[in-house]
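Q: What does the assembly look like in three dimensions?
Context provided by user:
Components: two
Sequences:
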Amino acid sequence: MKRGFRPGAVERFFRMLAGKSSPVVPSPPPSGPLASYPDVASWDHWEEFDALAWPRRDKKTYALVPTICFNCEAACGLLAYVDKSTWKIRRFEGNPMHPGSRGRNCAKGPATINQINDPERILQPLRRAGKRGEGKWRAVSWDEALDEIAGRIRVAFLEKRHNEIMYHVGRPGHERAMERVMRGWGIDGHNSHTNVCSSSARLGYQLWCGSDRPSPDHANARFILLLSSHLETGHYFNPHAQRIIEAKMAGAKIAVMDPRLSNTASMADYWMPTRPGTEAAVLLAIARIILCDDLFDREFVRRWVNWEEYLRAEHPDASVDFDVFVEKARALYGRFTTHFAEAESGVPAATIEEVARGIAAAGPAFAAHVWRGAASGNVGGWQVSRALQLVSVLVGAVGTKGGTSPAGWNKLSPALFAEPPAQRFWNELLFPREWPLAHYEMSFLLPHFLKEKRGRLEVYFTRVYNPVWTNPDGFTWIEALSDEAMVGCHVALTPTWNETTIFADFILPMGHAGERHDVQSQETHAGTWISFRQPVLRAARERAGHPTQYTYETNPGEVWEEDEFWIELSWRIDPDGALGVRKWFESPYRKGEKVTVDEYYRWLFENSVPGLPETAAKENLTPLEYMRRYGAFEVKRDTYDLHETILAPDDVRDSEVDPKSGVIARSGAPTGVMIDGVPRRGFATPSRRLEFYSPTTAEWGWQEAAVPGYTTSHVHARGIDEKKGELVLVPTFRLPTMIHTRSANSKWLSEISHRNPLLIHTSDAERLGIVNGDLVRVTTEIGFSVNRAWVTEGIRPGVVACSHHMGRWRLTDDGGSRWGTAKVTIERTGDGVWKMRQAEGIRPFKSADADSERIWWRDAGVHQNLTFPVHPDPVSGMHCWHQKVTVTKALKDDRYGDVQVDTKRSMEVYREWLALTRPAPGPGGLRRPLWLARPVRPAPETFVIRD
Amino acid sequence: MNYGFVIDNRKCIGCHACTVACKAEHDVPIGVNRTWVKTIEKGTFPDTRRYFSVMRCNHCADAPCVTICPVTALFTRDDGIVDFDPARCIGCKACIQGCPYDAIYIDPRSGTAGKCNYCAHRVEVGLEPPCVVVCPEHAIIPGDLDDPETEIAHIVKREEVTVRKPEKGTIPKVFYVGADFASLVPSAAPLSGTYVTSEGREPGVTPRRPAPATGNDGGLLAIAPLRAATAAIATAEAAPARRIYDAGQTHQGSWGWKVSAYLWTKSIAAGLMLVLPFIEGWSSPAHDSTLRLTAIAIALGFLAATGILLVADLKRPSRFLWVITRPQWRSWLTRGAYILMFFGLGVTGLAAAELAGAERLRAILIWAVAVLGAGTAVYTAFLFWQSKGRDLWQSPLLPLHLLVQAGAAGVAVMLLVAVAVPPISGQALGDLVTWLQRALGVHVLLALMELYATHQTKDASTAAQWARTGARFHVLAWGVVVLGAAAPIALLAVANTGAILAAGALGLIGLALWEHLYVQAGQKVALS
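A: Here is the predicted structure of the complete assembly.
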C-alpha cells in the first residue's frame, strides 16, 4: 500500500540532474479500527505526527492531562495535549473518562485553546491609574494587590462592617469553595448571577420536590418535553444533547415549546411556538387531559403527592379522600381546555392534545426540562416549572428510568476539610425583606439598593461576572460602580476583559479551564460523577518531576487561580489569627501552616468522594493522583426511585412520626415519610412528598399561587397593541457557539458568530414596512437600541427576538478584547440620559497571533440588555427578561449599535415592580422560611427579623 | 482500505464543534475552513425547519483535484484518503476549479492549497479525526467502506444515503443520511449577503482586505446590502430554502484577471503562428520575411507575457518550474505547460531558421509551430473541462471557440503588423480583412451561444445568467458584441488604414473582455 505518491520518471530524472534522491515511499501503516482517544496507559508519553508538518512524518510527544471546560456550566471533560518539548498546550480534546460528557464536546471545548493563547488577555494584575472607569491601568505585583485588598477587608472586619464585603460570582464552577471562604471570613457576602439566569425555574422545582433543579434521564425517555433549548445551550448543553438525540434515535418523540425556532425546536417532532408567557396554560391543558381522561398514574399520585395537605387547606369541608382530590383537581384545571390554551398560546389545540397523549403513553419514561426560556422571561415564571413538574408527577415520571429526578440525587456536594460554622450576619443587600421567597440573591438590584442607600460596599469582588453588560439596566450599574461612596474598592477577578472590568480598581487575571483547580459535579443524567479541573501545565510538569508552588508559575504571564488567591488573601486578612479567620486556611495535615492547594484537594478526594479511595488504591494511586490522572470519577449510576428507599431501623430510631402527615423527623428535621405504613426516604420537602400544594407559598402571602397555576405574564397579548408597533421581545436566547460574554476571545467562535440581528416575522415586518437588513429602532420602557432586522419565518408573529452574547464594547483600544468588541463612546446628557454610539466596529489588528490581521468581519452586534429595566418577580426575585417593545424603522440620525437609556426612568420601573412584592416577616417573624434553601445559609437566628 | 464519512443529519444539531475541532487540529487560519456547517431554513411559520449539513472534502474515488493538480501535490492514498502536500504545491489554484464541492482553499500563510485530509496523520497512529471525536451526537461516522463489519458500511448499506452532486462522476465518499435536498444542492438555497449570526463573506481565495475605518454605520454595515447584490445571483428566483449560515465559496474568483489575461496573450501568440503559414507571396520575399519575423517577435513577446502571467498567478511563483520538473501527466495544466514550452521552442527555432535563411527547416517548422499554436490555443479547453467545479466551462464549443478566438486575435495583430510594415498586396490585405471579419463573426456567435443557449445544468445557466445581467450585460453587449465585433466588422468594410487599425485594436479589446467575462462567470456559482 502506498501512502504518498510515486514520483514519475520525469521528476526522478530532474532530481537526478539536481543530484537529489527521489522521495522514498514509506512502508504501510498498521491498519485497524480507529480509536477516539489514546489509551490512558499512554497518557504520560503519547507520540503522534505533527499535523502542521504533514505529510512529513514529524513525531511529537505529548503528556495528556485531563481537566474540565470552563465555558458553560456543564463541566464537560477536556483533555489537554501538552507538548513535552515546549511545555505548551497544543490543543484540547474531550476527556473520555468523564461520565457526563463522555469524551465529546461542543464547539466551546476545543475553542479553549484560543482563550488560553488569546493575545488580548490580561497577563498581570492591573491597578487603576486614572479615575474609575477611565480605562487607565498600571501593572502591579500580586503582593501589592493582596496587601491592599486584605488591608481594607481587615479594617472592615475590625470595625464590624462585615456586610460591606461582597463576592459576586458569574460563572460558579467553584463547588462549595467560596461558601467555605465566606464562612471562614464569617460574612454573609456571597452574591451570584442566578436571579438573571434560572431562579424562577429553580423555585418552581424547589417548591415541588425540595431540589431546585431537574435531572431528566433523557437517554431512556420515550417522550421528551423541553421548554428550553437543550440541543444548543442551557443546563447542560453537550451532555443533554447527546442523550436527547440518543433517545430520539431510539424512537422517543420530542416536543419543544419556544416562540422562536431554536435549533432544538427544529430537531423536535413537535414545535409548539407559544406566545411568550402562555406556556403554563398549555402545560395545564396537558395536565387537564391527563387528569380528566384518567391517563395519570393513580398509585404514584396517591402515594407521593401531598394531596391530603391540599384538601385540608383548600377544601376543609371535603373528606380527605383521594377520589375527592382527583375530582377537585379536575375542577381546578377545568378551565384549561385545549381551546383555551390555543386561544392563549396560539398553539393548535390538536397539537396540545397529541402531545398530551404522547406524554401519557410514555408514562414514567417522560423526561421534561425547563431551565431559562419561559421561566426566565415572564413574571410568574416559577409557575411554568411548577406546571411542567405537575405533568411529570401526574404520569408518575419522577425519579424513574426515562423520567425526571430531583437534581440532588445525581449531584455530589463534597464536604471540605474543617468546615467553618454558618455566619451570624444577614446581608439585606442580598436578601432584602421584600422578597422573602427570593430563590437566590437579589443580585441584579444591587446598584438600585446602593442608590437607595440601603448599604455600601467597602470591597466588592466580581468574579467571572459582567453585570454592566449582562444584567438589565447596565447604565445604573455604571452609575453605582463609578461612585466610590457606594463601592469603596472593586476587585474584578476574571480570565478576560469585560465591560465591568472597566469600572474596577483592581483587575486580577484568573485562569481559564486548564489553568486552575476546581471540582464540579452536575446532574447530567441518572448517575453521579465528580470531575476535577486542574492547571494542566502545572500537572504535566509535576508529573514529569518538576514541583510547582503556585499555579501562576506555569500559567501564561502571572495569571493565577482562585483557590490559591483566596488562601493567600485570607491569610493576609488575619496574619496572626486574632480575627479567627486564619485557622480555616491552615493545613489539615500540617498544623498551623498555610494549606496548599494539593492538600485541599487531597483531603476532599480522600474523605468526600464515596468509592474513590478504593478505586484509586486498586491502581496503586492516591485519590488525588487518581483524579490528576483521570480527571473524573463516577460515584453512582442508574440512580432511580430513591424516594422509595425504605428507611433502615437505625434511620428511624429516636424519630417521631407525625400522625397526620406521616412525616418522620428526628429532632425537628424531617428524614422520611410513612407511605402506606412503610417508612420511606421521600423527597426533601417539609412534607417529604411532592408538594402539589405549597404551604410555604400560601403562608408567605401567595395563597392564590399555592398550587401550580397560570400567571398572566407582563408581556401577555392583552397588554400588547400591535397597531402601535408593539411586540414582545425575547432577548434571552443563547447560541451554541458562545457563552455569555466570555467567549468572544475565541477567534474561531467569533468567526462563526458575531452579530445578533432582530428576528422578526415576515408578516410583522411587512406591517411595519421593514425589509430584511433594515436598520430598526427597538424601544423599551427606558430607552432604545438600533439594530438590523432579520426577517424570518422562524418566529411566531407578534414576537421579536435578539440573541444574547453580542454587542460587546470597549472604550479604549487596549482595555477590551478586539476580537469581539466595538469601540464605543458613552456620554451622559445634562438630563441624565445615557447615550452609547459605536465609533468603530471590529477591525483586524496586529498581535502575536497573525490571525488577528485576518479578521474579516466588522459587525460586533448590538448591546440590547442596557435598554432593559429591572423586572424582579415579586416571588422568586428572578429578573423577568421579556420586554414589551416598539419596533420602528430607524430614525434619520440613528446609527447601527446606538443605545440610549434614561436611568431615572429605570429607577421608576424598579419601584413599580418593588411595589408588587409582599414583604417579610412571614410566620414566626422570619425573613424567610427556614426549610427553604439559601446559598451560604446563615445561622438560624439570623432568619428572625429583630428590628 | 477505503475511508469515507457518513454525516447523519438526523442527529446533527448544528453546534459547529466539528468546525472548531478541525481548526484546532490543523490551526486553520481565520477566513478559511476545512469543514463547516452550512445551515438552511425552509418553510413558513409554523411549518418551519432548519437543516444543518457538514460540508467538507468528499475524498472522491475519482478526485478531480488530484487529476488536475499539475505537480501531484494532491494525491489519493491507497486507503482512499485524498491527501495533499503543501511542500509540493505551487499555488496554481487549479484544484479549486477542479473541485465541485468548494472543499479546497489557499492557506493565507503558505500560499498553498489546503482541505480536509481525513487527518491522515491521526489515522496513521490509530486515531479518529477530531471532528468525529468531538461531535456530541456521533453524527460524523468515519471508517472503512470496504470492510462490511464497520459502522459506516452498515449505515451505507442499510440507510438511505445520498451524496453531493453525484452527476459529477467523482464518486464522493461522504454520505449523508437524512439530508434535505436544499442542504446539498447549492442552488436550492441561494447565497446571501449576510447570515443570521455572521456577516457574509466576499468571495475570494484570500481573506478580505480591511475596510476603510469610517467609524460609523456606513463603515460597519452599509457594505452588507452591496455585498448581497454582488453575491446573490439567484435571489430573485423563488428558492425552496434560505441559507442562514455558511462559510463557503472561497473558490469564487480564485482565478482572477491574470488568468483572463493569460488566455488573451497566449491566444495572440498562438493565433499569429496559425496565420503565419498563409503569409506567402504577399509582397517581396524579403518583405514577407520581415513580416514573418515581426509576427514571430510579437508572438514571442506575448508568449513571454503569457509565461509571466502564469507564474505571477501562482501563489508560490518560485515553484513554477515544478510544473515541468515534477509533471503530473493527467493534468492539462502540465500538458499545457509542456505545449507552451514546445511552442516557445518551436517559435524560437522558427525565428532562427528565418534569420539563418534555412528555408527547408523553416518550411517544416512553420507548420509544426502552427500545429503547436493550435494546441496552445485549444489545450485550455481541456483544462477547463477538468475544472469540474465550473459547469459553464464544460461547453463542447470550447475548443472550437478558443481556436476561433486565437485565429481572430492572430489575424487582428497580423493586420496591425501589415498596416504598420507596408507594403503588402491588396489581395493579402483583403484576405486578412475577410478572415478577421469571419473570425470575429464566428467568435461572437459562439460567445452568444455560450451564454444564451440552453445549458445542461442549473449551475451553468446560473453562471451564464450572471454574465448576462447587471453591469456585465453592458460589458457583453457593448464591449464584446458591439465594440469588440460589430464595430470592427463594419470598420473593416471601410478598409482604410485608420479604420483597420481601429478595427484590429477594438477586436483585441473585445476578445480580452470576453475572456475575462467568461472566466469570471464560470466561478460565480455557489458550489456548496
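Follow-up: The domain at 257-522 of chain B is CATH 1.20.1630.10 (Formate dehydrogenase/DMSO reductase fold).
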